[in-house]
């Protein structure tokens, strides 16, 4: 079975990346382990896909049809932090990525990192405008509330 666990801390929680760019996901382990597994959950295909296993010696084992050019794992010397590198990003890479360690026939999953690949990244201006557009809405709801009281 799978269980999510606080012993594996994944960062960041969400990634928005552009097609053909690359990204990385960090996994910090607070538990002894023999190596780290990486999986992807695809909402579209409704399946967990095994991507790559990285042993303590740094040897990588890839899942079926997983491109070695696309995925790579870099392990910290301390064996407590690992990062999954994904390059040549494509819409088919969308999904939630989990680092995982095996413990007494269970797979402990990290907190998950959701990756969304888009052709064009949204302009940073939009984020500064968002709070402004929210304010008038807040005023409207407040007015409605006060008129109900009256």
From TrEMBL:
The gene is Cd8b. InterPro entries: CD8B, Ig-like_dom, Ig-like_dom_sf, Ig-like_fold, Ig_sub, Ig_V-set. The keyword Protein transport does not apply. This is CD8B protein. The keyword Cell wall biogenesis/degradation does not apply. Its main location: membrane. One of its GO terms (biological process) is adaptive immune response. GO terms for cellular component: cell surface; membrane. One of its GO terms (molecular function) is coreceptor activity. Pfam families: V-set (PF07686). Transmembrane segments: none annotated. Coiled coil: none annotated.
């Amino acid at each position: 079975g799978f269980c999510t666990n606080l012993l594996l801390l994944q960062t960041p929680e969400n990634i928005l990346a552009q097609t053909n760019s690359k990204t990385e996901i960090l996994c910090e382990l607070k538990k002894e382990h023999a190596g780290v597994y990486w999986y992807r959950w695809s909402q579209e295909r409704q399946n967990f896909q095994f991507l790559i296993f990285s042993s303590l010696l740094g040897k990588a084992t890839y899942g079926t049809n997983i491109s070695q050019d696309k995925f790579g794992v870099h392990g910290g010397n301390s064996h407590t932090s690992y990062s999954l590198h994904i390059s040549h990003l494509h819409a088919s890479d969308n999904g939630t990525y989990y680092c995982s360690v095996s413990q007494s026939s269970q797979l402990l999953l990290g907190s998950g990192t959701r990756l969304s690949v888009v052709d064009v990244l949204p302009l940073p201006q939009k984020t500064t405008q968002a709070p402004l557009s929210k304010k008038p809405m807040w005023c409207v709801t407040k007015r409605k509330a006060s008129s109900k009281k009256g």
